[in-house]
Amino acid sequence: MSGKKRVCIIGAGMAGLTALKNSLEHDLDAVAYERHTAVGGTWIYMERKVGESEEDVHSSMYQDLYTNLPKEVMGFPDYDFDTNIPDSFISSELVLDYLRDYAKHFNLMSFIKLEHEIVRVRPRYEGWEIIIRDLRCDKYSVEYFDFVLVCNGHYTTPMYPETEGLENYQGERLHSHLYRKPDIFAGHNVLVVGGGPSGTDIVNHIHRHAEQIYFSHHLETAPRTDFMTNVIQKPDIKHFTPDGAIFKDGSSATFSYVIFCTGYKYTFPFLSVDCGINIDVNWVHPLYKHCLNINRPTLAIIGLPHQICPAQLFDLQVRFALAFFTGRKELPSRGEMLAEMEADMAARWANGVTKRVAHKMGTKQYDYYEDLATTAGVTKLKPVITKLMKNCSRRYLFELDTYRQKRYRVVDDENFIGVD
């Protein structure tokens, strides 16, 4: 047996891969468990099988998805996308290729156990007892670790709004989690609910096929949709009817499909109650800086914040957690961590943030990155990442038909240019 401390990494998607790579670089005995047959997580496109439930579908990837962030900020800080790719906004297939290249470049595959599902995580003595199921032979085993990095992804369990009359609606309904191709909507009137990037992109994706699209959202600034002549923007839904809906402005519409682009629930079915993690609607707590389990700070959850720059955030959160796991930095007291969390959340609640989006960052993400790096004493994000992110922010709302044509080139750690 190695004398190294052991870390269990749950998942081998984008977050799990950087967790594994950084753990190995910190001289930890690291193992990543992935229940699917390949690495890549949500970036793997999977057709939905007939009769398959929402819970059985792991990936939310749909056909012909292109990133809404440029590849110049989509990569990890120590491994760039192939510079021979001319476009900045790229297909999901190219992102998946990048993740697999990253795994090969850093020799991660031998530390990943594919088709292994984590059944239970529970504290034991000073560490963690992990029950693992080998899906290939349906056998169970028990392993012990000093640390746990939870990287299971959060695009698997759909969240639906509680809207009056939905149970009476007789048409077809699906969550964006199950959306795959636009052609099934040919000739139909469709309601798309939710004004986030996925809702806006799906409206754009299906408008050439659907007869009429009603786009219901409560964005303060309405997205530009004039180039899609069959799209009518609507406010939130007051209540559903058997063949449509009444909206809060008193208008109505009839449609045969509803697509809910209303987010996902955070779920950790493998965590035992005594892990000390609670979920209230979608607020996961108590966590130090939205990441480290305050009750048992040898476990961290990577990737809870949303409206962020994913790969950069995952990498930074992992390095933040490892600084404390390895003892390089000393944690504040439990009381100090709780007080900081409570002050942060009190400010969020006061600003109208609900528990449904408790970990939303948006424009606060840049302060969050700075805080993580400063607190843990780790390398900060390159300034060019922040500058590029701010340049791209909300562009999908106003230039949905053209913004993916933009190309960027990073000049150095501080600067970028547009190349067209």
Notes on the protein architecture:
By secondary structure, this protein is α/β, with parallel strands linked by helices. The protein folds into two domains: 6-157 and 265-392, FAD/NAD(P)-binding domain, CATH 3.50.50.60; 166-260, 3-Layer(bba) Sandwich (FAD/NAD(P)-binding domain), CATH 3.50.50.60. The protein is built from nine helices and 22 strands. It has helices spanning 14-25, 71-74, 92-105, 197-206, 310-325, 334-350, 365-376, 383-392, 395-398; strands at 6-10, 29-34, 112-114, 116-124, 127-134, 139-145, 147-150, 172-175, 189-193, 212-216, 231-234, 237-241, 244-247, 252-254, 257-260, 278-280, 283-285, 287-288, 292-293, 299-301, 408-410, 416-418. The strands form seven sheets. Strands 3-2-1-7-20 form a five-stranded parallel beta sheet, with helices on one face. A five-stranded parallel beta sheet has the order 8-15-9-10-11, covered by helices on one side. Strand 21 (408-410) and strand 22 (416-418) form a beta hairpin. Helix 1 runs parallel beside helix 5 (310-325) and helix 5 packs parallel to helix 7 (365-376). It is globular, with a radius of gyration of 22 Å. It starts with 5 loop residues before the first strand and ends with a strand.
